[in-house]
Task: inverse folding
């Protein structure tokens, strides 16, 4: 059975249910809010013309789950970040959350990310292109990504678990008004 309770600091204005639904109780009667978000669902709560974005899973946990150990994060037990039913949520530490994600294969790494343009195979070809004289601009153009994406690879921020220390590779920067030594025309990507 769905139960609504008032949201702390929004009493008289908004309520959240154990099913993960949020409703307004002050504006022209009761109205269920439509959550937004790709990763985590959120709602916008507005009181006295002050808007705040609130994550639905945190509202449910703060309202319905006891947090006796004062843990900072809320875990989705089934890994579905859109399932905000109270039975699917639990308070956890950052370490517990990361361990849960690892143990349940929930980590979206590298090309498994929906927005990824690079694949492991393409990234492993980068050292070959560097030896051929490719600049970071050349690599960005070749792989159809931003130069920042390429810089993050060489800075050790992305694609770190492939057995290559990209921070030791030194790609050249393109010098203005000087053609690159790397010939993009002969390069074919798989």
Result:
């Amino acid at each position: 059975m769905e139960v609504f309770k008032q949201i702390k600091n929004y009493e008289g204005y908004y309520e959240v249910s154990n099913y993960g639904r949020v409703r307004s109780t002050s504006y022209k009667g009761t109205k269920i809010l439509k959550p937004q978000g790709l990763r985590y669902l959120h709602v916008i709560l507005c009181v006295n013309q002050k808007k705040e974005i609130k994550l639905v899973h945190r509202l449910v946990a703060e309202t319905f789950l006891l947090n006796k150990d004062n843990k900072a994060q809320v875990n989705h037990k089934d890994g579905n970040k859109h399932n905000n039913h109270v039975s699917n949520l639990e308070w956890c530490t950052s370490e517990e959350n990361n361990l849960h994600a690892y143990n349940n294969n929930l980590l979206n790494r590298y090309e498994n990310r929906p927005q990824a343009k690079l694949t492991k195979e393409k990234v492993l070809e980068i050292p070959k292109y560097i030896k051929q004289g490719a600049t970071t601009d050349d690599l960005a153009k070749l792989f159809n990504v931003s130069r920042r994406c390429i810089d993050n690879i060489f800075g050790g921020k992305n694609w770190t678990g492939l057995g290559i220390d990209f921070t030791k590779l030194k790609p050249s920067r393109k010098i203005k008004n000087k053609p690159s030594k790397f010939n993009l025309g002969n390069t074919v990507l798989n």
Notes: The first helix runs from residue 56 to 64. DSSP finds six helices and eight strands in the chain. The helical segments are 56-64, 94-103, 120-124, 126-131, 136-143, 147-154. The two ends are 54 Å apart (CA to CA).
